[in-house]
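A student in our group prepared the protein record below, which I am reviewing. What it holds is a sequence and that sequence's fold in token form. My question to you is simply how this chain folds and whether the tokens agree. Do not assume that whoever made the record got everything right. I have pasted the whole thing underneath without changing anything:
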Amino acid sequence: MKNKLLFLILTVIAISCSKDELYSYTNEELANDEFYPYLEMFRKEAKKRGYNFDNYNIDFYLADIDKNDAVGLSYGDSRIVIDRDVWNGRNPEFKEFLIFHELGHSALNRKHKNDKTDAGECLSIMEGSDDGNYQFTCSSNIYSSLWREYYLDELFNSNTSLPNWYLDSQDYDIEDLNKDIINSRSDVAFHIDSIDLDTISNFVLEIKFNTTNSSTNTIADFMSLISLNGYTFNASQYADNKRITIFRVMPETTQHIYENGEYDFNENVKITIKKNQNLLSFFIDEQFLHAMDIDAFQDTDIITSVDSETNREIVMDIEIFQYD
């Protein structure tokens, strides 16, 4: 499990764009045929938002960029250079995100923007660095269709506000809901529930990792995992290494959805996942983390577990209920 967590940390999207004196590259190869389909998508999205880039063209190059933290370089309206290894190893969603970011510089004259929500989500896909000293500052969900729509709106209009669907998903109002309990119990270590979630429009899965009623009374070395329909909510703390991640394992790829490395865990950690129609909202200790739209549920298993060397006996107080 620690290895999986490390992998997720290392695959966080990071983009640096700069000048030749900061980033040199070799083995340059003109690759317009590879990149022009993404330019065409950019033109279409621009036209939806009142821009016309039908006659805009720019040369794209694949190259071996020397610094590991640079995946794309923009040089005004003359050329965009993309790291060859990064490009060949990424999925279409990341490729679109990367090219749109670089076109934000070249076509829209956008600068980097590292603003984020209180929960640590990037407010723009123009997140990045100019000076070669990129630090991970926020998390981008490029796999959600609703987040993609917001990010594209913001790309073409930097004054775009966060959408209502996101703002309306932040209230932790679990206690006020009219509950119909599906399952409620206490358990340790590992458990699987098989529930046909796709037939339930609104439901809540809430787990309190309870050290008070356990043989272990510390969360200094703690790792929890909740998985449903391929979406995994992971919270872990090893000494000073603290991490919350939300990801989805898909064929041949892991979709990194959210990450927060600054959270201080309470003595008893409470994780909540709330489904409202086609939206999932994630909370930890009743504090909002993330919201996104979801695909239909196909896997009926809900997997909950604690995995650490010292805390396997932490009691999980689990409640699953549907609501009106």
